[in-house]
Design brief:
single chain; mainly beta
Length: about 300
Amino acid sequence: MTEQAYIVQFPHPGPEHQPKGQEMPWNTGDHRRKFMVTPGRYRDEHGGQQGGKVVFWGEWEGPSRVVRKWPPNDPLPRFLHEPHFDTPRVVGFRQNTDPWVFGERFRYSNCKQRTNRGMTATAMQRLTTGSLILFGSTIGASFVLDTVLVVGERLGSFTPAHFDDLEVDEAFRVATLKSLSTGPPEEMNMTFTLFAGATPADPAEGMFSFVPCLPYDSDGPRFPRPTIELPGIVNPQSSRSTSGSTRRRPLGEVTSAWQAVVSQVIEQDLLLATYLELADRRVRSAPSDAISTAEEQ
């Protein structure tokens, strides 16, 4: 492993999806966040591994079932989604999901890897093993976190027109790679780099990828995305462009930043989900319970 890596603040759109019914189809509009529930594995405040259903914030532009809704109470979520993979019935453009937090390894594949005009590759395609990517949004005057991806491996390059050589599962292939190919024709031959995240079983200098979460129970816990403060690294006013991808840092500095993020997440009474399951409706179609409306918490 290289002795240097990067710490990247990765701002992406913060608003929550506002579904109109109980079933939300593939997204054909702007990127948004979802508050979701799914089976998973997580690390508790003592570092022990636990399993069961968890709730978390993330990006999933595929279909989902709304199983709970609450009255507005910012910055808490209004809707709880059960994400699932299904064959797209959308004709034309649909949004891709990036970062990808489902399955054994998180992935980062394309977002902000090109300039606005798409003609030049950015430093985001050259991240080294051990690099730390903090995906989040500016809400008010704070940077709030939804996903931490520690680069574990570079899986290869691809274009939206040619990605068959990548060894990935069908859900990722359809929801991210094939979704990219529904974009404008002039983008079909742009080159992107696919990265896989480090895991607790295969960490990078002790670091692993995670999303802040809580165990799900009958009370239906919800929480705001945690605020992260890393002076000199995270700028809460930066809401569009990535920062940090051109500054190499000693690995010790990167691991210290990762540990600080972990501590801040735990201090905000949240835990670390390291594996999240994505249901496949093509093979499992048992309906969920009807949508419920909770009193405002």
